[in-house]
Amino acid sequence: MSLIEQAKQKAAFQAVDEHVLPSHRVIGVGSGSTVVHVVARLLQRDPELNAKTVFIPTSFQSRGLLLDGGLTVGDVEQYPNIDVTIDGADEVDSQLNAIKGGGAAHLQEKVVAEAAKKFVIVADYRKDSKVLGEQWTKGVPVEVVPFAWKAVLKKLQEQGSKNANLRMAVAKAGPVVTDNGNFIIDAPFGLIHDPAKVLKDIKLLTGVVEVGLFCNMAEVAYFGCEDGSVTIRTK
User: For the chain, percent helix, then strand, then coil, each to nearest 5?
Assistant: First the structure.
């Protein structure tokens, strides 16, 4: 296992150990590479506890991980009150604001995070920043309805994201299509000192479904470090 994977594992394991309690019956599980380690730790719990627990995935990926592990899967429609949600992030600032959506799942991730009594972020040291935009330079992921993508792109460029672009797929011709059938625009804004304002300005654009800025949502973040330690940031 590489140093980065070891860092992700350390952060994920500690977050699960400290925030998934025996009394919890509904647990939200995010998406991405760090969440692989979250699910691995959940599978190490007492099988009797897991048998009494419903897990709410945020993407096709996390749903598959949970089902492959033999865990019971539900959705927010069935279980609107979640005890805790643990998810990764593309970048986290000093105030626990985060950029998410590198995996194009931020709509479902945000719904599941907001439904939880507690939202916990797990990541490796590369995702730790003072200000959003320091480490993650690809831009703010913006999920848009397909027929409006050009109009939204133009508005984002007018708002200051001159290099905003439609995210293209790697293993297929054409754009990335989300689990919800939408497109993704990546909109770089440089250093984002007021992410809540950027979030509001983008969200008000007609055609935007969701924005990959998670502001004032996380209660705590765990960062796995190169030296094997874990840094914990709380509000």
Answer: 30, 25, 45
Model pLDDT for residues 8-33, shown as the tens digit of each residue: 999 999 999 999 999 999 999 999 99
With beta carbons less than 8 A apart as the criterion, state whether 85 and 16 touch: no
The residue length of the chain stands at 235
Cα distance between residue 109 and residue 59, in whole Å: 8
**3-state helix/strand/coil string of 72-109:** EECCCCCCCCECEEEECCCEECCCCCEECCCCCCHHHH
**C-alpha Rg value of the chain to the nearest Å:** 17
How far is residue 210's CA from residue 147's CA, in Å, rounded to a whole number? 15
Q: Using CB atoms within 10 A of its CB, is residue 33 exposed (0-12), middle (13-18) or buried (19+)?
A: middle
Task: Report the C-alpha gap between 152 and 102 in whole angstroms.
Answer: 19
Query: What domains lie within the chain, and their CATH numbers?
Result: 3-130+215-234 (3.40.50.1360), 140-209 (3.30.70.260)
- The amino acid present at 57, given as its one-letter code, is P
**Strand (E) or helix (H) holding 27:** strand 26-29
Q: Are strands 98-99 and 119-124 parallel, antiparallel or unpaired?
A: unpaired
C-beta neighbour count of 203 within 10 angstroms: 13
- CB count in 10 Å sphere of residue 139: 23
Angle between helices 35-42 and 3-19 (to 10 degrees): 50
> What's the predicted TM-score (pTM) here?
0.96
Report pLDDT digits (tens) over 61-84: 999 999 999 999 999 999 999 999
Known catalytic residues? 109
